[in-house]
Amino acid sequence: MAEPRYRRATAADLGAIVAMLADDVLGASRETASPAVNDRYRSAFAEIDADPNQFLCVVEEGPQIVGTLQLSFIPGLSRNGTKRGQIEAVRIASHRRGGKLGEAMMVWALNECRARGCSMVQLTTDKSRQDAHRFYERLGFEPTHIGYKKQI
């Protein structure tokens, strides 16, 4: 198996990214995975790509995209003006799950956050994703807050 390569996503990667987002129980109910990526995904990608505080990453093994995640670098006044890294939308292609790729992706993401001056990294995960909770806790993340969402 080829060594994973991490790079900034391009518009050409959208189909593979959306397919990974849709390839689980939660994603299947909220994503639109089809051969033609819709305009909303293209618009969101353009906005992410234009923002210097965003990094939409894809992970390749050889010519195949096998993982994705989004990093947001958030400047703030709290905690003495520290910058935070936010990790979102972590997904691994189904045929690569369980093989330590997720752990390698998180190590890469933490290193990127350090390089961008972040003193803390945070993430959210759905309450129903018990395997993800165990995974993040094994990597040293602590469930320190309660998150809230409201659909508008």
Automatic annotation (TrEMBL):
It comes from Rhodalgimonas zhirmunskyi. Gene3D superfamilies: 3.40.630.30. PANTHER family: AMINOALKYLPHOSPHONATE N-ACETYLTRANSFERASE-RELATED, AMINOALKYLPHOSPHONATE N-ACETYLTRANSFERASE-RELATED-RELATED. Residues 4-152 form the N-acetyltransferase domain. Transmembrane segments: none annotated. InterPro entries: Acyl_CoA_acyltransferase, Bact_Acetyltransf, GNAT_dom. Pfam families: Acetyltransf_1. GO terms for molecular function: acyltransferase activity, transferring groups other than amino-acyl groups. PROSITE patterns: GNAT. Signal peptide: none annotated. This is GNAT family N-acetyltransferase. Keywords: Acyltransferase, Transferase. Coiled coil: none annotated. It comes from the Bacteria. The keyword 4Fe-4S does not apply.
